[in-house]
Amino acid sequence: MDAPVKILLAEDDVNLGKVLTTYLEAKGYSVKHANNGEIAYDMFCTNDFDICLVDVMMPLKDGFTLAKEIRKLDRHVPIIFLTAKSFQEDMIEGLNLGGDDYITKPFSMEVLLARLQALLRRTTHESEKLESNVYQLGNTLFDVNRQSLTFNDKETRLTTREAELLSMLIMKRNDVLEREYALKKIWGDDSYYNARSMDVYITKLRKYFKDDPIVQIINVHGIGFKLIV
Question: Can you tell me whether residue 9 is helix, strand or coil?
């Protein structure tokens, strides 16, 4: 049985949030509801979501700001904006910030479901490409299932944490993997101890690639790390 599609719902209207959650869960989706942008961002950092439904007008952090921060962490997760505004300028701004669709309130549940399903169908092929099990990094092969690196016929086995961290760097290849995001995704929180632990794993990954000059893992001061191939 396939796992349900996981939805992050950021909506400050408590009643609408409950109605949407109940409806989508009845349709087989898994929904986490946040009633402001800050809670939604924390949820995104600590969970894996397949799609985000984001209200534009929210307290503490509005939907456009939330989408901008989500896009810094994940360039691929689909985002649908929900808004009471119908101004063309707002629609254009939302799409320019990385939104994939835009639904103006009030809307029917059937329309929302149809737009969700259509967007998920369009992104399925891209997701399949991102979930490839073997990656060519310079002259090195990374096999995700075997948790191994192969360079010049020499195989090196990675620990689970090393493989998870390398996988995240690959998803952000030639872009910045933010330190806080990686810590919350892999270690569960961004405590000082876990941050030092991640630094050790980064050092080990660099050693694995030291004989392959095409591959580098660099520090981006104050932000995180970047895998350059």
Answer: strand
**pLDDT at residue 222, as a whole number:** 87
CATH number at residue 68: 3.40.50.2300
Position 55 in a domain: yes
Q: Which domain holds residue 88?
A: 6-130
Beta bridge partners of 148: 143, 157
Residue 141 maps to which CATH number? 1.10.10.10
Residue 1 lies in a domain: no
Which is nearest to 90 in space by CA: 79, 78, 104, 77?
104
17 and 121 both lie in a single domain:
yes
Q: Using CB atoms within 10 A of its CB, is residue 155 exposed (0-12), middle (13-18) or buried (19+)? A: exposed
| Measured CA distances, 91 to 42, 109, 113 (Å) | 25, 20, 20
pLDDT, tens digit, for every residue of 21-76? Answer: 999 999 999 999 999 999 999 999 999 899 999 999 999 999 999 999 998 888 77
Q: Give the pLDDT mean for 78-97.
A: 77
Count the domains in the chain: 2
- Burial of residue 94 (CB within 10 Å: 0-12, 13-18, 19+) is buried
pLDDT in tens, 107-137: 999 999 998 998 888 766 445 544 558 889 9
